[in-house]
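Onboarding guide, step 5: your first structure request.
Type a short instruction followed by the sequence, for example:

Predict the 3D structure of this protein.
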Amino acid sequence: MLFTAAAEWLFWDEFGVRFNFIAVDYLVYSDEVLNNILESYPIGKLLSGLGVIAIVICIFLHRPLKLVISARLPTWRERLLNIAVVFVLSAVVFLSLVKTLPVAKAATPISMSWPAMVPTSSLPRFVITS
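The system replies with C-alpha cells like these:
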C-alpha cells in the first residue's frame, strides 16, 4: 500500500491526475517508461524509505495485532447483536439522509385532446402567418 501511495503521489505530481489510462498505456512502452523513471526519480532512496516505513509500522503494530489475534471470538448472540446495531445505525443514517434530499415536484398532468386522446404536447405545432 505504501508503494502504491508513493507511486500515485508521484504520478499526481507529474500529470495532475490520479492513475488513469496513461498508466495503462505505459504498460505497452514499459522499457521506455522504466528508463525514464530510473532517470527521473531516486528509486533506491524511495524504495529504501518505503521499506523503513513498513518495518516501523510492523514494529508498532506487532503487539496490538498479536492481542487482536489471540482475543476470544464473540458468541453467536454477540455477533447478532453487533449486526443488529450496525443495521439500526445504518437505517438511522439512511433515513436522516433521505429527509435532507430535495423532493422532486409532482409531475403536471398532460393535457389530452378530446377526439384522439393524444397528448397535445406530442401534436405538431403549426404557425399560421398571414
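Each response can be followed by summary notes, for example: Residues 43-70 form the longest helix (28 residues).
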